[in-house]
Amino acid sequence: MFNKIKVAAVSMKPERWQKEKNARKMESFIRRAARRHPDLVVLPEGLLDGYPINEVIFFPERRPAFLEAAEPIDGPYIARFRRLARELGICLSFGFSERIGREAYNCAIVLDKKGNICGKYHKTELAEGYHPSWYFNRLGKSIRAIDTPLGRCGMLICRDRFNPMIARTLVLDGARLLLISSYGSKEREQNVAVLARARENGVPIVEANVGMNLIISKGEIVAYKWGADKITHAEIEVPAEVSRRNARAHEKNFLRKRGPMMKKFYQRIQKAIRAGNFTQDGMRSAVKKKVRDS
């Protein structure tokens, strides 16, 4: 048994540090996507602040400013999009940097058609690695699916999509649909990875990446669009039931393996930083090389 729903993915490209400008652009794209009456609109990673995290890692003096730019879950920008979801009568999912106290997390959120927060997810695997002193870029602590009006869904953020353990844990926790918000690779290897996650787990995937959109249903690509600032519409078929079993054991196994992996990634990115040739694109190239080598 399958439930058909209409979805839209938006490949919006934000500007670093331009929170209000990015919010206005997000709202414009969501309103345009809503003209075709989708049940769900998915947008990329780090949209509000423009994802300056690589810059922040390289220039420590910018970390306090980044923390201030991060949005609390009860902040005015989240309230703005809750009102928009309610006005348009659609579910929304997008990525942003969430501030909790004096720490920040790479976060994705799901809002229902009434503007309620169904849940949120913190990125659990960072391409740049991790150090305990990174209050501005904390690792997610759990992998849990979220109940929504469209069915129980799981969220992944960028690098998470390359690790099959993360998607599998979400499906074992009852996810019938996977949503991916990304600001990363648009190369063939990412398409192959996302298609594999859908086929391994028997669930549809809606991915909104900065520069491309990818929608998969019943193990096949049903919509794909290349380029920034594009809207892609499709209909997907969501399985009526996915049994829940062994999710916590799978989650525990991933978290156990994550520590050494994040340390290895961190050491590699620090080596790139010590070379002193930073540009935003250069940092991304170093991360991409590290991912290929891992």
Q: What would you say this structure looks like, in words?
A:
The protein is an alpha/beta fold. The protein has a single domain (2-293), classed as Nitrilase/N-carbamoyl-D-aminoacid amidohydrolase (4-Layer Sandwich), CATH 3.60.110.10. It is built from eight helices and eleven strands. The strands form two sheets. Strands 5-4-3-2-1-11 form a six-stranded mixed beta sheet. Helix 5 packs parallel to helix 6 (188-201), helix 5 packs antiparallel against helix 7 and helix 7 packs across helix 8. It is globular, with a radius of gyration of 18 Å.
CATH topology group: Nitrilase/N-carbamoyl-D-aminoacid amidohydrolase
Q: Work out the radius of gyration.
A: 18 Å
What is the correct CATH architecture? 4-Layer Sandwich
Number of domains: 1
Q: Structural class of the secondary elements?
A: alpha/beta
Order of helices and strands: EHEHHHEEEEHEHEEEEHH
DSSP summary, beta strand count = 11
Helicity, as a percent range = 25-40%
Instruction: Provide the low-confidence segments as ranges.
Output: 290-294
Number of helices: 8
Fourth CATH level, the homologous superfamily: Carbon-nitrogen hydrolase
The neighbouring-strand order within the major sheet is 5-4-3-2-1-11
CA-based shape: globular
Q: What share of the residues does DSSP label as strand, in percent?
A: 25-35%
The description of the largest β-sheet is: 6 strands, mixed
Q: If you average the pLDDT, what whole number results?
A: 92
CATH class: Alpha Beta
Cα-to-Cα separation, first versus last residue: 39 Å
